[in-house]
Amino acid sequence: MRNHGVFQGRSQPPGESEREGPRVLLVDDLAESRQMVREFLEGEGINVVAEAGNGREAVSVVQEQHPDVVLMDIRMPDMDGLEATRKIKGWSPDTQIVMLSFYDEPDLQKAALRLGVFEFLVKGEAFLRLPEVIVDAWEHKASLERWEEPGQAESGASDF
To answer: Is 0.85 topped by the overall pTM?
Structure first.
């Protein structure tokens, strides 16, 4: 599976050799949108491990499933994507969040980026970039985790 779709020609992040690819949570209040994105991502070899219909569900699923990447809609009922991102990043700072919106509003983008989202994409124009952005986010998460492994700080400090 790693030799097709978005993975073709890419190397696996160090420490991730036992896995096929990023574990992704889809968060969107529209079930049809989630289904369409799931089918597209799975066709590219991306492992969609769960779905959520709002931010509150997303926070719960992140705590249970520990996905690598959350693909998060920004405007949803019950809890929006910004508040869910704030909670997820507070609990699991290495979880990478890719924010999606129909709204190309600079203020929303700035707010999302201040909360630590990996990337903010406007729905429609960026759809075909999703697999690449998700894999980039996964690779970024793996690089963060390498720095946090026990013994890394000690061995890195002696190199200076």
So the answer is: no
